[in-house]
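Q: Convert this sequence to structure tokens.
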Amino acid sequence: MARILIVEDNAQLAYGLRNNLEIDGHVVDVAEDGARGLEAALSWEPDLVVLDLMLPQMNGYQVLRSLRDEGLSVPVLILSAQGEEADKVMGFRLGADDYVTKPFGVLELLARVSAILRRVGKDEQPLRVETFGKVEVRLEQRSVLRDGREVRLTPKEFDLLVALVRRRGAVATRIQLMKEVWGYPASILSRTVDTHIAELRRKLEEQPREPRHILTVHRYGYRLRS
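A:
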């Protein structure tokens, strides 16, 4: 599919992004500072650059300005802990295509990546559909059908469901789900995941109190059974 360059000095975050983008079928390269990111963008010619702002050597604004000065029109998605309007305006004025504020859910970021790639004609895969029981999950359309009828999910409920679907039966811990869907650091735990799981069961299971598909793994997390 697409060639994606991640310019990010946080090794753990870069690894997580790379892993998830590769699961989606993309070819991914990582640069850990601004200077190397600029060099990689110029030599590798990626289809998309995911660019942090707070970088060693050159900050993200400098990298973006240099890319545009070199005449490269490659789409750029900015990642930043700086969420002020002025920061976003600066990014867009320099030629960014999208701006995501940290912390963010990985699945939200993947959706934004897909949207950018569709706009530039680099994401031409057929619409992906996953099924379990009588439920059909249309990933690109962000819609869910049960018995052929649309089920209304909140954005976070849908992202949580996708996080389970993508694991194809493997277990997801609460910490993993909090990080992927809500963007919270691993140190934060709450009942948020459990509450949203209960809502998914209510909307998608025939007998929510005795679920057949959205299963609890005691003291660990959840998994989806087809």
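The radius of gyration is 19 Å.
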